[in-house]
Here is the input.
Amino acid sequence: MAVNNIFGPIDIATSGLRAHNKHMEVISSNIANARTTDAGKGQPYRRLEATFKTEDDELSGVSLDKILPDKSEFIRILDEGHPDADSEGYVLMPNVDIPKELINLNIATRAYQANAAILKRYQKMVETTLELLR
Amino acid sequence: MSKQINIVDLLESAIRAESLRQKAISNNIANIETPNYRRINVKFEKLLAKAMESPGSVDIKALEPETYQPKNTPVKPNGNDVNFESEIGHMIKNNLRHEAYVRLLSKKYRQIELAINLK
Here is the structure.
Protein backbone atom coordinates (compact mmCIF):
# COMPACT_ATOMS: atom_id res chain seq x y z
CA MET A 1 0.00 0.00 0.00
CA ALA A 2 1.80 3.11 -1.19
CA VAL A 3 0.83 6.20 0.69
CA ASN A 4 0.89 9.26 -1.50
CA ASN A 5 -2.49 10.77 -0.97
CA ILE A 6 -4.16 13.01 1.55
CA PHE A 7 -5.80 10.04 3.25
CA GLY A 8 -2.51 8.25 4.01
CA PRO A 9 -2.57 8.88 7.77
CA ILE A 10 -6.16 7.64 7.94
CA ASP A 11 -5.23 4.34 6.29
CA ILE A 12 -2.20 3.93 8.56
CA ALA A 13 -4.17 4.69 11.73
CA THR A 14 -6.89 2.26 10.60
CA SER A 15 -4.30 -0.47 10.04
CA GLY A 16 -3.04 0.20 13.60
CA LEU A 17 -6.56 -0.11 15.00
CA ARG A 18 -7.05 -3.42 13.19
CA ALA A 19 -3.71 -4.87 14.28
CA HIS A 20 -4.14 -3.93 17.94
CA ASN A 21 -7.72 -5.16 17.95
CA LYS A 22 -6.47 -8.53 16.74
CA HIS A 23 -3.72 -8.46 19.36
CA MET A 24 -6.41 -7.92 21.98
CA GLU A 25 -8.15 -11.05 20.67
CA VAL A 26 -4.95 -13.07 21.13
CA ILE A 27 -4.56 -11.78 24.71
CA SER A 28 -8.22 -12.66 25.50
CA SER A 29 -7.61 -16.18 24.23
CA ASN A 30 -4.54 -16.52 26.47
CA ILE A 31 -6.38 -15.25 29.54
CA ALA A 32 -9.49 -17.32 28.85
CA ASN A 33 -7.35 -20.44 28.52
CA ALA A 34 -5.04 -19.75 31.46
CA ARG A 35 -6.19 -22.98 33.16
CA THR A 36 -7.06 -25.12 30.15
CA THR A 37 -5.30 -28.41 30.79
CA ASP A 38 -6.67 -30.13 27.72
CA ALA A 39 -6.28 -28.37 24.38
CA GLY A 40 -6.51 -31.61 22.41
CA LYS A 41 -3.58 -34.01 21.80
CA GLY A 42 -3.30 -34.50 25.59
CA GLN A 43 -1.41 -31.23 25.96
CA PRO A 44 -2.42 -28.12 27.88
CA TYR A 45 -3.13 -24.85 26.07
CA ARG A 46 -0.02 -23.23 24.69
CA ARG A 47 0.20 -19.46 25.02
CA LEU A 48 -0.04 -17.53 21.72
CA GLU A 49 2.11 -14.60 20.80
CA ALA A 50 1.15 -12.06 18.12
CA THR A 51 3.86 -10.56 15.92
CA PHE A 52 3.48 -7.34 13.97
CA LYS A 53 5.02 -6.51 10.63
CA THR A 54 5.30 -3.63 8.18
CA GLU A 55 6.50 -3.32 4.61
CA ASP A 56 10.02 -1.94 4.97
CA ASP A 57 11.13 1.38 3.46
CA GLU A 58 7.59 2.48 2.96
CA LEU A 59 4.93 4.31 4.92
CA SER A 60 2.51 1.48 4.81
CA GLY A 61 0.91 1.01 8.19
CA VAL A 62 1.08 -2.13 10.29
CA SER A 63 -0.46 -5.55 10.11
CA LEU A 64 -0.55 -8.55 12.37
CA ASP A 65 1.94 -10.95 10.81
CA LYS A 66 1.66 -14.31 12.53
CA ILE A 67 0.15 -15.71 15.67
CA LEU A 68 2.76 -18.16 16.92
CA PRO A 69 2.81 -20.52 19.91
CA ASP A 70 5.02 -19.57 22.84
CA LYS A 71 7.60 -22.37 23.11
CA SER A 72 8.39 -21.96 26.81
CA GLU A 73 7.88 -24.86 29.25
CA PHE A 74 4.48 -25.71 30.68
CA ILE A 75 4.04 -25.14 34.39
CA ARG A 76 3.99 -28.38 36.43
CA ILE A 77 1.89 -28.31 39.57
CA LEU A 78 0.97 -30.93 42.12
CA ASP A 79 -2.76 -31.65 42.14
CA GLU A 80 -3.45 -35.32 42.83
CA GLY A 81 -7.21 -35.10 42.46
CA HIS A 82 -7.08 -33.55 39.00
CA PRO A 83 -8.46 -35.81 36.22
CA ASP A 84 -5.51 -34.89 33.96
CA ALA A 85 -2.89 -35.65 36.64
CA ASP A 86 -0.12 -38.16 35.81
CA SER A 87 0.76 -41.18 38.00
CA GLU A 88 2.75 -38.98 40.41
CA GLY A 89 -0.12 -36.50 40.79
CA TYR A 90 1.41 -33.71 38.70
CA VAL A 91 -0.62 -31.71 36.19
CA LEU A 92 0.79 -29.70 33.29
CA MET A 93 -0.70 -26.20 33.24
CA PRO A 94 -0.62 -23.74 30.32
CA ASN A 95 2.45 -21.48 30.06
CA VAL A 96 0.23 -18.44 30.49
CA ASP A 97 1.33 -15.84 33.05
CA ILE A 98 -1.72 -13.75 33.92
CA PRO A 99 0.13 -10.63 35.18
CA LYS A 100 2.17 -10.61 31.98
CA GLU A 101 -0.99 -10.92 29.90
CA LEU A 102 -2.58 -8.05 31.79
CA ILE A 103 0.42 -5.85 31.05
CA ASN A 104 0.14 -6.83 27.38
CA LEU A 105 -3.56 -6.00 27.57
CA ASN A 106 -2.67 -2.54 28.85
CA ILE A 107 -0.19 -2.04 26.04
CA ALA A 108 -2.72 -3.16 23.42
CA THR A 109 -5.40 -0.86 24.87
CA ARG A 110 -3.07 2.15 24.89
CA ALA A 111 -1.86 1.42 21.36
CA TYR A 112 -5.45 1.19 20.15
CA GLN A 113 -6.29 4.48 21.86
CA ALA A 114 -3.21 6.15 20.36
CA ASN A 115 -4.23 5.12 16.86
CA ALA A 116 -7.77 6.34 17.47
CA ALA A 117 -6.31 9.66 18.67
CA ILE A 118 -4.27 9.97 15.46
CA LEU A 119 -7.38 9.29 13.41
CA LYS A 120 -9.32 11.96 15.27
CA ARG A 121 -6.53 14.53 15.16
CA TYR A 122 -5.87 14.03 11.45
CA GLN A 123 -9.57 14.37 10.71
CA LYS A 124 -9.45 17.72 12.54
CA MET A 125 -6.43 18.75 10.47
CA VAL A 126 -8.16 18.07 7.16
CA GLU A 127 -11.20 19.91 8.44
CA THR A 128 -8.94 22.90 9.17
CA THR A 129 -7.78 22.80 5.56
CA LEU A 130 -11.37 22.60 4.39
CA GLU A 131 -12.16 25.72 6.43
CA LEU A 132 -10.06 27.60 3.87
CA LEU A 133 -12.68 26.68 1.29
CA ARG A 134 -15.38 28.57 3.07
CA MET B 1 -6.07 16.16 -22.57
CA SER B 2 -8.47 18.78 -21.44
CA LYS B 3 -12.16 18.40 -21.83
CA GLN B 4 -14.98 20.83 -21.45
CA ILE B 5 -16.80 19.69 -18.33
CA ASN B 6 -19.37 21.35 -16.20
CA ILE B 7 -17.91 21.67 -12.70
CA VAL B 8 -21.36 21.80 -11.08
CA ASP B 9 -22.40 18.55 -12.78
CA LEU B 10 -19.11 16.96 -11.80
CA LEU B 11 -19.45 17.94 -8.14
CA GLU B 12 -23.09 16.89 -8.07
CA SER B 13 -22.35 13.41 -9.32
CA ALA B 14 -19.39 13.12 -6.94
CA ILE B 15 -21.65 14.06 -4.02
CA ARG B 16 -24.17 11.49 -5.24
CA ALA B 17 -21.42 8.87 -5.23
CA GLU B 18 -20.36 9.81 -1.68
CA SER B 19 -23.96 9.54 -0.47
CA LEU B 20 -24.23 6.08 -1.96
CA ARG B 21 -20.90 5.10 -0.39
CA GLN B 22 -22.15 6.30 2.99
CA LYS B 23 -25.16 4.04 2.54
CA ALA B 24 -22.91 1.12 1.62
CA ILE B 25 -20.78 1.67 4.74
CA SER B 26 -23.89 1.85 6.96
CA ASN B 27 -25.06 -1.38 5.40
CA ASN B 28 -21.69 -3.02 6.03
CA ILE B 29 -21.68 -1.97 9.69
CA ALA B 30 -25.29 -3.08 10.14
CA ASN B 31 -24.31 -6.51 8.79
CA ILE B 32 -21.13 -6.86 10.83
CA GLU B 33 -22.32 -10.15 12.37
CA THR B 34 -24.38 -11.48 9.45
CA PRO B 35 -22.98 -14.87 8.39
CA ASN B 36 -21.62 -15.03 4.82
CA TYR B 37 -22.10 -11.30 4.23
CA ARG B 38 -19.41 -9.75 2.01
CA ARG B 39 -18.74 -6.03 2.28
CA ILE B 40 -20.06 -3.64 -0.38
CA ASN B 41 -18.06 -0.81 -1.89
CA VAL B 42 -18.89 1.89 -4.43
CA LYS B 43 -17.13 2.33 -7.75
CA PHE B 44 -17.09 5.90 -9.00
CA GLU B 45 -13.59 7.35 -9.43
CA LYS B 46 -12.59 4.62 -11.89
CA LEU B 47 -15.75 5.14 -13.94
CA LEU B 48 -15.08 8.87 -13.97
CA ALA B 49 -11.48 8.40 -15.10
CA LYS B 50 -12.63 6.07 -17.86
CA ALA B 51 -15.25 8.58 -19.02
CA MET B 52 -12.65 11.37 -19.06
CA GLU B 53 -10.22 9.29 -21.12
CA SER B 54 -12.73 8.16 -23.72
CA PRO B 55 -12.96 10.25 -26.91
CA GLY B 56 -15.90 12.56 -27.52
CA SER B 57 -17.81 14.62 -25.02
CA VAL B 58 -18.55 13.31 -21.53
CA ASP B 59 -21.97 13.33 -20.02
CA ILE B 60 -21.08 13.65 -16.36
CA LYS B 61 -24.75 13.81 -15.36
CA ALA B 62 -25.32 10.33 -16.77
CA LEU B 63 -22.41 8.90 -14.78
CA GLU B 64 -23.91 6.67 -12.12
CA PRO B 65 -21.88 5.23 -9.23
CA GLU B 66 -22.06 1.45 -8.96
CA THR B 67 -21.95 -0.88 -5.98
CA TYR B 68 -19.78 -3.98 -6.02
CA GLN B 69 -18.32 -6.55 -3.64
CA PRO B 70 -14.50 -6.29 -3.57
CA LYS B 71 -14.05 -9.72 -1.87
CA ASN B 72 -10.43 -8.91 -1.07
CA THR B 73 -10.58 -8.56 2.71
CA PRO B 74 -9.86 -11.41 5.14
CA VAL B 75 -12.94 -13.53 5.83
CA LYS B 76 -13.93 -14.32 9.42
CA PRO B 77 -14.90 -17.89 10.45
CA ASN B 78 -18.60 -17.12 9.86
CA GLY B 79 -17.97 -16.15 6.22
CA ASN B 80 -18.32 -12.44 6.92
CA ASP B 81 -15.54 -10.06 5.83
CA VAL B 82 -16.57 -6.74 7.41
CA ASN B 83 -13.95 -5.14 9.67
CA PHE B 84 -15.28 -2.48 11.98
CA GLU B 85 -12.11 -0.37 12.07
CA SER B 86 -11.78 -0.39 8.28
CA GLU B 87 -15.36 0.76 7.88
CA ILE B 88 -14.75 3.62 10.32
CA GLY B 89 -11.67 4.63 8.30
CA HIS B 90 -13.69 4.54 5.09
CA MET B 91 -16.42 6.57 6.71
CA ILE B 92 -14.01 9.30 7.87
CA LYS B 93 -12.46 9.52 4.39
CA ASN B 94 -15.91 9.62 2.86
CA ASN B 95 -17.05 12.40 5.19
CA LEU B 96 -14.00 14.53 4.42
CA ARG B 97 -14.41 14.08 0.67
CA HIS B 98 -18.10 14.89 0.96
CA GLU B 99 -17.31 18.05 2.92
CA ALA B 100 -14.73 19.15 0.34
CA TYR B 101 -17.14 18.65 -2.56
CA VAL B 102 -20.01 20.44 -0.84
CA ARG B 103 -17.77 23.39 -0.03
CA LEU B 104 -16.47 23.56 -3.61
CA LEU B 105 -20.03 23.46 -4.87
CA SER B 106 -21.15 26.28 -2.58
CA LYS B 107 -18.09 28.29 -3.66
CA LYS B 108 -19.04 27.76 -7.29
CA TYR B 109 -22.61 28.86 -6.64
CA ARG B 110 -21.29 31.98 -4.90
CA GLN B 111 -19.20 32.77 -7.97
CA ILE B 112 -22.25 32.46 -10.20
CA GLU B 113 -24.24 34.64 -7.80
CA LEU B 114 -21.49 37.24 -7.92
CA ALA B 115 -21.58 37.27 -11.71
CA ILE B 116 -25.37 37.69 -11.68
CA ASN B 117 -25.22 40.60 -9.23
CA LEU B 118 -22.66 42.56 -11.29
CA LYS B 119 -24.36 45.58 -12.71
Remarks:
- The mean pLDDT of chain B is 86.
